[in-house]
Amino acid sequence: MKRVIKIASLILALAILLAIDFTAYKQALNINTLIVETSEEKVANTNLEDKEVVYFGVVSRFSPHIIYNGYQPVMDYLNKNTNYNFKLKLSNSYEETAKMLANNEVEVAFLGTFIYVTTRDKYNLKCILKPLNEDGSPFFHSALVATDNSSIKSINDIKGKRLALPSIQAFSGNWLPKYELRRNNLSESDLSSIQHFPYHHMVIRQILSGNFDVGVVKDRVANEFLKKGIRIVQLSDPVPGSPIVAGPNSDPIIIKEITDAFLSIDPKKQKYKEITKNWDIELSYGFLRANYEDYDQLTKLLESGGTEK
Question: What is the mean predicted confidence (pLDDT) over 112-123?
Answer without folding.
Answer: 96
